[in-house]
Amino acid sequence: MLIKRLANRLCLGIVLGAVSVAAQAGLGEPKERVEHDRVALQAAVITVTHTSAYDRHELRAANGVTVHEFSDRQGQVFAVSFIGPAMPDLKVLLGSHFAEYAAKAHASPSSHKVYTHSSATLQLSLVKLPRGFTGTAVVPGSVPAGVDPRDLH
Amino acid sequence: MSLKIYASILVSALTLVACGGGGGGSTSSGSGGGGTTAPAVSVSPTSIAFGSQTVGTSSAAQTVTLTNSGNASLSISSISLTGTNAGDYAETTTCGSSLAASAHCTISVTFTPTAASATTAAVSLSTNAAGSPTSVALTGTGTSSTPAVSVSPASIAFGSQAVGTSSAAQTVTVTNSGNATLSISSISLAGTNASDYTETSTCGSSLAASATCTISLTFKPTAATSSSATLSIATNAAGSPTSIALTGIGTSTTAGNSFPITIDQGPIGITNTVNVAYATITICTPGSTSQCTTIDHIQVDTGSYGLRLFSTELGAAVPTSVTDPASGNAINECVIYADGYTWGSVGKVDLTLGNRTIPGVAAQVLSDTKAGAPPNTCSHTGTTSNGSYENTVTAFGAKGLIGIGPFAQDCGSYCAQSAQPQWYYTCPSGACSPIAVPVANQVQNPITLLSADNNGVVIDLPAVTAGVGQATLQGTVYFGVSTQSNNTPSPGTGWYTLTNIGTLSTTYKQASLPNSFIDLGSNGLFFGDSAIPTCTTSTGFYCPTNPLNLSATITGANGTQTTASFTVDNADADFNANPSFGVFKYIAGNNSSPTAPSNAFDWGSPFFFGRRIYHLFEGQTVGTVTGPALAF
After folding, report:
1. Distances (CA, A) of B476 to B147, B161, B262, B581
2. pTM, to two decimals
3. Chain A window 16-75: which residues touch B at a Cβ cutoff of 8 Å?
4. ipTM of this predicted structure
């Protein structure tokens, strides 16, 4: 059987080590931890947009990346997304799910400009844009009823 | 009786002589028995059916043979046309007023209908033979039908073609759009530069009503100038000959604002790349004309910017180190990909593309030992021990990469403003730290460094016409946009401006995907559609049960909009059925997890097949359009 590689190139970076993360935050954590992420990402302010189903917390990280964290009515962060000129620190954004991503990210090389990860505990889509990166990550099953996942950007 | 036997033989002979339709011979004999002398009339055929004939046109002549089958001279008093439509027929004859026994003469009849209807008439022979007058029945139908010829396209513009090289074939379809058979008497090339063009055709000398045939044309210019000729099709249809204007532009191979690209299966030893465009480049030690190396299979990408070369491929060329102006330390560079990362020094080489040489091009020299080991921040997982270091040609899928998309530097102002991991580093004493690098010192899109034709590029790839793909596909990259005749979009070509992150919008199945982009470096169309099954072998690609015909709408930042149709085929099936192919027309893949869909539609290399895509660089202006922008 022939196995063809996806040859589009994705500049996929994870910035580690600059910030010592005392406790896991990000995806799957209480929304109170968004403040922790703000500090970790060196974002100046958090702008919260309320909808009937969720709150969207917008952070503008010091490296120019815009991060959105989505919390449900129970206060749990169920999705994160980002867009910007570089990759954000995915260890902050993915929180306790980072280990699963990191284990797979190097174990199943497949693509250069596209990366997807799909499991029962983490769904992730990353794209290398002509200039910069965009991505979104969701805890499966935690998206509030009536919310279109395509709106979580 | 001997006489009857003789007569019988004679009739058989006459039947052979007679031309055209109608029945056999008939004999009117004035003799009932032996001993008497009398003339007798025999005609063959006894009837003629002319079939359909266009009103106002004359049929071919049909011949009636009149034989005196008696044994006395036959006196012919008249040969005339009679009957309802006698006026639609005409006759001429070799018969005189008498015909010796056993002699024969002929009557030629033509049919020229005056109306679109069935006609009948007869040739009537008045003689002195018994049974006179003798008749030959004539039938024919006047038809208003005529052949008509239509051709598509009405003209062919071959565009630019290097002198002495042949273009891809373009096809003209000839259709008999009438309802009578079309006679084709000639297909020919004429005009000033007829010798620049060649034609082959499936058309014979006739074409049935509603049938089509094709004429295939190629352009091989003999001079670097505009070329024109006319394809002429001569037929029996009204308005013949039908003409098709052919135009092309011969481009000088010494002007050199282009270089060829090829899509194939990749460098020797690699068999699993598809739809990746490669170029062959020459690099030299700066200032040298002898310390040079020509390298094949450099990937051509429009989704990144700058030259990257594996150190193992440098040969005699020695890059000159680029140093950090602040510290004087050599600059190294990391570039991270989804399936791994690259690392190497930054060095300058003289780069030759086609036959233009660009001096002092900064390149990332991949896996250069001068750069030492990659730092941990240059990896997927924050540690290089378990990352996927693409440090070989095999792992990377190419001997290098040349990024020529619509931005000028690989990183740009982002890396100039502050030190950022993932990009530029210095490594004094082996300890690597990110550094800020002024834009001018970064790895540059080499096209921007040309002395002319430096405001953009045109990617020109021919269509993949047959089946699901082919072994290779050859195209051209032109330097510049609207600086030469060969890089100027034709009037009316739509310009799609891009955002400052190189994106435009796509709408697919009612979903708006604002972060979409067009990218030669992606080897399929990548988008999220959870309704399409993904492949089990070539994971990441789509494998629908049956080919899917889909479409999506592309909208530029300036509002210019078009709908693009595309087909998604089963990638595993296409790959397995065509192991020698490097080009696959219908390949698409998934860029989305089901509940975390991407908002990008990645229009990869199949979108380039059959298109000329004009890439105007950031800050450059053509007419009213300022880059980054694309036209197609």
Report:
1. 42, 10, 8, 20
2. 0.67
3. 16-18, 63-64
4. 0.83
